[in-house]
Amino acid sequence: MAAAPSSVAPLAARALRLVGLVLVLSVLVDYVASLVGANWSEPRWYVATSSQWIDRGVVPLVGLTLWFSGDWLAQQLDPLAITQQKLVRAIARILPLVLSVIFILAVPIHLSNAFTSQAQRLEEVQQQAQQQQQALDLQFQAAIAQQKQQLKQLFGTPGLFEQVKASGQIPPDQVADFEKLVGKPEADIDRFVDQRAAEAKQKQEAELKANQDKQTSAIRREVTANTVRTSLLGLLLVIGYGGISWGILRQNPANV
C-alpha cells in the first residue's frame, strides 16, 4: 500500500537535507586533509591541490542544491521550520560565498604555479639530457681508446688479421673497411676509429635530442591541457557559487 503524501514529503525533505549535508561535508573533509603535510614552497603541490579542489568543487554545488531543495520543501510543509536549525541554515547560506571566493583565488594560483612547475620540469629534462650527454662522452672516450688499442694490435701482429677474418669474428659489413687498414700507419687507424666513433656518437646524440624534445612537448601539452581544463572548470564553479550567493543576498532578510 502506497504511503500517504503527508508522510512521504517530510521524509523526502529530511533525506534531501541529509544527503546534501553529507556531500558538502565529505568534500570539506577532503579539502582539509589535502592541507595536511602541505609543502607551501613547492609549486607542484599548489598545482596538484588546486586541481584536486576544483575537480571536487562541483560536489558541494550539488550538495547545496539538494540541501536548499530539502529546506524549501520543509518550509512548505511547516512554515515554522524556518526558525529551526538556524546555525545550519546560516552556514549553508554563507558557504556558497566562501567557496566562490576560494575558487576565484584558486584559478590564478593554479595558473601561476602551473607555469612555474612547467619551468622546473623542463629544467629537469634538460639537466637529465646533459647528464646523459656527459655519460655518452665518457662512454665513447673509453670505447675509442679500447678500439684503437685492439686494432693496432690486430694489424700490428703479422697474420693476426687474416686469422681473425677467417674465424668470422669480424662482422661481414666491416671486413672491407678493415682490409683497407692492412699495412697502414697507426695515424690512419686512429682516424678510422675517430670517424666511425663520431658517426655513431652523432646518431646517439640525435636519439637523445629526439627523446628530450619528446619529453618537452609532452610536458607542455600536459600543462596546457590541465591549465585550460582547470581554469575553465574553476570559472564555471565561480559562476555557480556566485549565482547561488547572489540569489541568497537578494532574498528577503526575513526568509534568510
What is the secondary structure topology, with strand pairs?
Elements: H1 5-34, H2 43-56, H3 58-77, H4 86-156, H5 160-167, H6 172-179, H7 186-249
Which strand-content bin applies to the residues? under 5%
Radius of gyration: 36 Å
Total helical segments: 7
What is the CA–CA distance across the termini? 38 Å
**Overall number of strands:** 0
Mean pLDDT: 86
> Helix- and strand-based class?
mainly alpha
Shape: rod-shaped
Total discrete domains: 1
Low-confidence stretches: none
State the major sheet.
none
Helix and strand pattern: HHHHHHH
Helix content percent band: over 70%
What's the oligomerization state? single chain
Plain-language structure description:
The chain is an all-alpha fold. It has one domain. Helices cover 84% and strands 0% of the residues. It contains seven helices and no strands. Helix 4 (86-156) runs antiparallel to helix 7. The two termini are 38 Å apart. The mean pLDDT is 86.
Describe this protein with a few key phrases.
7 helices; 256 residues; 0% strand; single chain
Structure in a nutshell:
This protein is mainly alpha-helical and 256 residues long. 84% of the residues lie in helices and 0% in strands.
